[in-house]
Each structure stands twice: as structure tokens, then as C-alpha cells.
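hey so i finally got around to running both of the ones u sent me last week. sorry it took forever, my laptop kept dying halfway thru and i had to restart like 3 times lol. anyway pasting them below in the order u listed, first the sequence line then the C-alpha cell line for each. didnt double check formatting much so if smth looks off just lmk and ill redo it

first one:
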Amino acid sequence: MKICEQRTVIITGAGAGLGRAYALAFGAAGAQVVVNDVRADAAHGVAEELRAAGAQALVSTGDITTLRGAQSIVDAAVDAFGEVHVLVNNAGVLRDRLFISLSEDDWDEVIRVHLKGHFCLANVLGRRWRDAYKAGAPVAHPRIINTSSGAGLQGSVGQSNYAAAKAGIAGLTLVQAAEMARYAITVNCLAPAARTRMTEGAMPELVKKPDSGFDLWDPMNVAMVVVWLGSPLSESVSGRCFETKGGELSLADGWRTGRIVDKGARWELSELGAVVAQLIENAEPAQKVYGS
């Protein structure tokens, strides 16, 4: 289905894995695709695949972690295609170590690429779309699609920097959706599971392509959900975090205020042990941290 005909999408980290699948799927759905990746050869390779399939593509190696870089990416997209309608924040890096073994650079680099990388392009495009809306010429169905992770939603041993960034992205999505609804901008996030450079490095046997049958870990499985979220068909969906793997699709149910025990006065130290035990006993059990 050409559900993204005449729509322009910027996809970060689009040179391989999930980003490449998103680019090809958007192209097949009629979109004009900005293939952003720091690896120029990989970005050009995906762009050539898109053009060979009849789609329009623009290569971008701009820096997603600065506002200046983000502005240059948007400017190039607008020059080439007239407007930007969809942003897919997908780029990421890993610096996996147990928490007390992390260096300052391990922490800063993961937070910079994931969390600040999600901020910059969304901020530039959000301001552009807001101004167009206020001027009475709104961009058609503007969409932001962020990338969280099961590591951010449930935690993951050896990935405290990555988990913190991905949890931050889930929280960012909620606030973006609430604030930007007034400008008809929808914002959602995804916690995908698929075969990528990251998962092939961490668990190669689990994610390898089967000899036959349904390929559970094919990134294109996730791409279908992303394209739908980037289309006009998702108009009523915002502020949601989808978990998807293979043919599975679910909504992540985030932190909620649980049962409240109200004494009506200050708690005594001697009382708190029993009260906390009661709250934990009556609460929905938390999912286990990955790797624990």
C-alpha cells in the first residue's frame, strides 16, 4: 500500500539493520527517504537500493547530536523534497559494561547519541511544524517516531548507560506527545526486537536467519509498524510505546501510581517496614531485568 505517498521521512541510523529496513519499507509505501547515517558508504548503499526500487532518496551524513547538524539535515531534506513529514529517530551505539566498570566516556557517548540525538532533530522539526501550524499552513500529518528498548523499559544487566538513555526516550515521548498535540503532531516510540549489528554481536545464535519458515528476527517485521505510525492512518495514536518482535505487537504499560496507603500523619520509622512489605505484596510483580 502506498500509504506514505508524497511524504518525506528522515531516518537516522538508516545504513543497516532496522534503519535500512525502515528506509526500504517507507520507500515501498511511496515516501521520499532521507537516509541519514554517519557511515557514508552504508547510507549511499541504502539510497541506491531505494532508487533501484523506484523510490526517491537523499543521503545525509549530518550530525544528529547537535542542533546545527540537525538543522542542516532538515534544510537539505526541504531543499530536495519541499517538506519533512516524518522523523524516525533510530540511530544508536553501545558501550556495554557493568555499571561500576563504565568510564565517563562510555556513559557520555551513549547518552549523547541516543538521548541527545533524539532531542536535536525533533526540536528542529517540532519548531518548524509548530510555526507552520500557527501560520495557518500546517504540515500534513507530522509524525515523530522514537526508539526505546526493552532495556529501557525493564532494565538490562551490563547496559545501565543504554537502559538509562532508552528509559529517558520513553519519558521524552510522553512529554513530546502531550505538548505537541496542540499542533497536530503525534509522537510515539517503539521497543523493537530484530536482527541488527547490535543483536548479532550480543546473541548471534538466537537471532540468526532460519533455513526455512517465518524469520522472527527479520527487521522488516518491525518496519511495517513504523511505516504505519508514520502514515496518516495513525492519526489518533500518540504518546504510546509499542513493543514488537516478529508477528508480536503490544503496548508497553509504563509506570503508574500503585495502591496508596495513607496514614494521614507522618510515618514513624518503626512502621515503615510493615507498610512497604504490604505495598510490595499487593503490587503487580515487576518484569525481571534482562540478564538477571
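and the second one:
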Amino acid sequence: MSTLRTPPLSLYVHFPWCVRKCPYCDFNSYTLNGVLAESDYVSQLLADLSAQAPHVAARVVRSVFLGGGTPSLFTPAAVQRLLEGVRGLVALAPDAEITLEANPATIERGAFREYRAAGVNRVSLGAQSFSAEALTWLGRIHSPDDTRRAAAELHAAGLTNFNLDLMYGLPRQSLAGAVADLDSALALGPAHVSHYQLTLEPGTVFAALPPPVPADDEAAAMLEACRERFAAAGFEQYEVSAYARSGLRCRHNLNYWTFGDYLGVGAGAHGKLTMRAREAIVRTVHTREPRRYAAGRPPRPTLHEVTASERTFEFMLNALRLPQGFSAGLFRARTGLPWSAATAPLRVAVERGLALCSDAGCAPTPLGLRFLNEMLLVFLPEVSEKSGKSGLSTPAPRAASQRREPLYTGARGVGQE
């Protein structure tokens, strides 16, 4: 008998446009050319959600994430229309967490108050750095003062539950510079900070023309120094790149990391749904290019059923990002598999000092968090099968990237900070 259970449900909405594409960005975003036809795109988003809504019947949506791209290019009126439409199509929890990603340079004075009135109750602000030189390297359109002004606007609007995206390992950045960036971020009173290392992703400008980034050991020293600063400021690290004040963890992202379900609407958006009646887990993905997405009437995502052999990897891809780990019961409930399905690759991870496991559950060690990408390799179906037969170990770990999203292809489409 399967142990598969229906998990919590979230909604991700993708806005694919930016004022300018950053040279490090490998997410599904496009430079905005001309007038933004926001009304047409919102109509398409609602048609998309309407077509997918029957798959979740009366299930309650616990969180909504408006990600991109730059959702704050859309006016508060457009966001209000979208959220009103969402409430008419799915059962949105009265206390749902509703997050808007925002670029500090695209926020007009008073706009956050209007976004709050539209239904937004959490904001993720793309600070990235408080060094003007670093922001120039990163191709950002905002200044450090823009971020400070935006944070002040958030407080004034009563949107005190906000996240700051902050990067380290930046071009020519020193240890002192990384710590100074964090101190500047904490001084703005955020509830949450997403702190991740700059990585040179394939297909980006930085991959073709690499900037002078710190060596791996220098970046590791930055991370350790910043972790101490977070702890001293009362922030808990609850995910490999996420820190929050007590009670203010991002509920939306926690749903991803515990292998929850989510509807994905918008160009390039990904989704995951558990079909308990069919004993199935299904991945959905929309076409990436906005014009092709807009041509669908309504848009129809491509479906992929996650096989039993893939579920262990898919679960570990997210759950091993959590320093506190996960229980064997959660693994069984979210995958429908027995705990024994994970024991062979977990044994390899334990033998290499990357994880601590028992019959009750598993958690990554500090070394495992540092070399997360390499630990995940042992859970790939083909590697996992060999591990169980021959005790195969993956190569020695090398420096891992502290990515802001899982390694699942296109995972930025699920809206992680």
C-alpha cells in the first residue's frame, strides 16, 4: 500500500520581463522592449490558472509567489486584478502568504502601500549588494540608496515582512566587503535575507566573459563570517541560503523544500502536483518564450510524470537544503516510497561525512551543506542504483555553489528567492 499523501499547495506566477538582463542571470527573463501590455498578460495568467484549477479541486492554496523577471514592473492595479482573479479560481487561504519580488529601481514612492492594498503581504527586494562598484559589475539598474529608500518605503507601508536578496563572492569582493554588505542589509531591518554566492551559470554573459571572482576558499571564509553575523543579529539559518528572524521563515519556499505541491502559471513557469487517486506525481512546465506562451488559448503546460525511480532524487534535491533535515515519515508521505528506497544513497552520503541519518530521518552535516551539489549526485537514479549494488562513491567533493534555487532544470520558474 502506498504511503503517498496530498501535501500543502502553493501558487507560483511568473513575470518574465526586466528592464535589463543581468550578466549573471540564467533565469527565464527578457529585456522589456516597448510598452508593457500588462492587461493582456494578466488575462493570459488567469486563463492559465483557470485551465489548471480543476486539477486541484477544492484544495487550499497556502501561499502565492509573484516572481520573475521583475514583477514590480506591473502596476499595483494589475497585481490587484490578478489576485482578485486568483481568489475567484482557487481556494486561497485567508492568511495566505503573498510575496511580490521587486527591483529597488522600479518602485515609485507610495507604490508599496498600493501593493499592500492589492493583497501583497510580503516583498522580496533584490538588493544583491550595497557596493556601487559591485552593482555595476552585476549589471544592476539600482543604486545602494535605491535599496535603502525601498526598505524605508516598505516599513512605512507596513510591509515589515520583507526579504533582501544579497550576494557574496562578487567580482573583486574582499572578506571585509562581504561582511560590510551584510551589515548594511541588516541595518534596514529585514525579516529575512536570502544570502547566496555568485555562480557563473552556463549560457550567461559571465560564463562567456568570467569576471574576477574570489577563489573558493575566500568565498567559504565570507560565508562563515556572515553566518556568525546572522547569528549575532538573531537570524536563524533554516535553509542553505536562507536566514530569518523567529517566526518569519518563507512559507512558500519551505513548501518547495519539503516537496510540497505548487501550481505554476506564466511563461516558463514550473509546477508540481500530487495526484493521490492515481498514485502519481506530475511536473508541469510552460513554454519559456512570452509570445509563444501568449499564443495559447489557454496556455497548456507540458506534463511529466515523476517515476518512482526519480522521486527519491527529486525529494532530496530540496529537503537536503534544510540544515535541520527531514523525517523518514515526511519522505514516505511526499514520495509514496518506503524509507528503504533512500537508504543506499544515504549510506554513501553518511560514509563521506555529508549527512547524519537514522531510521527516523536524515540531516546534512555542515560539510554536506557546503558540498550540497556533490551530495545530491548520489541520489540521481543511475548513480543511486549503482550505489546500492556496488557501494559506488561519487568523486571527492569540490566547492559547491550556494545557489538560490535547486538544481532542477529551470527551477527558478518555481519562484525561489
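quick thing i noticed on the 2nd:
The chain is about 35% helix and 20% strand.
anyway thats it, ttyl
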